[in-house]
């Protein structure tokens, strides 16, 4: 934890993940603006107030966080990762955001950031990470598979109260969680 802000700082060999609170909106928006293809991949237009909404939602929801991914060597912000611990139940966390700006893609930084987050969550007792997105976003399926997630069945969706098949729900067990 960062004593000044009480927000977690998670580290890996090349990266720091700085969870943001109120006042960090401009930093996060700069990351979103540097990756306009991220919004397009999610099937929505770019939003000039996305960071403001994300930081506010994180501040208002216990266990929810959004962090910038920073290159340790230079201090440059190169991406973002957002999660919600204990969602939908204890021992499970939901991954909501994982992005790296185009100039830094292809170097394994998203995988490294996710690995650091997973280790941090597992150390706190999280045993599984989940993510979800509209099923129609087919280009995301190979990406989340490559990151170690496996798609949950429609029957599992129904157990969680998700009647439709329009959402693609994925899970990944965490080592030591």
List keywords for this structure.
eight-stranded mixed sheet; 177 residues; alpha+beta; Aminopeptidase
Describe the overall structure.
The protein has a domain at 9-128: Gcn5-related N-acetyltransferase (GNAT) (Aminopeptidase, 3-Layer(aba) Sandwich), CATH 3.40.630. The two termini are 20 Å apart. The protein has 177 residues and is α+β, with helices and mostly antiparallel strands. An 8-stranded mixed β-sheet has the order 1-2-3-4-5-6-8-7, with helices on both faces. α4 links the parallel β5 and β6 (128-134). 31% of the residues lie in helices and 28% in strands. The chain has helices at 25-34, 36-41, 50-60, 109-123, 140-146, 154-159, and strands at 9-11, 15-19, 64-71, 77-84, 92-100, 128-134, 150-151, 167-173.
């Amino acid at each position: 934890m960062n004593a000044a802000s009480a927000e977690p700082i998670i580290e890996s060999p090349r990266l720091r993940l700085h969870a943001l609170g109120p006042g960090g909106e401009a930093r996060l928006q700069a990351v979103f603006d540097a990756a306009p293809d991220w919004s397009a991949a999610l099937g929505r237009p770019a939003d000039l107030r996305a960071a403001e909404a994300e930081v506010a939602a994180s501040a208002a929801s216990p266990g929810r966080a959004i962090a910038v991914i920073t290159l340790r060597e230079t201090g440059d912000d190169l991406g973002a990762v957002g999660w919600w611990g204990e969602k939908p139940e204890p021992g499970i966390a939901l991954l909501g955001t994982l992005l790296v700006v185009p100039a830094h893609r292809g170097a394994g930084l998203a995988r490294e950031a996710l690995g650091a987050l997973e280790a941090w969550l597992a150390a706190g007792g999280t045993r599984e990470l989940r993510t979800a997105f509209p099923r129609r976003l087919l280009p995301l399926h190979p990406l989340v598979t490559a990151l170690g997630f496996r798609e949950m069945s429609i029957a599992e969706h129904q157990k969680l109260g998700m009647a439709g098949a329009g959402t693609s729900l994925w899970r990944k067990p965490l080592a030591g969680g």
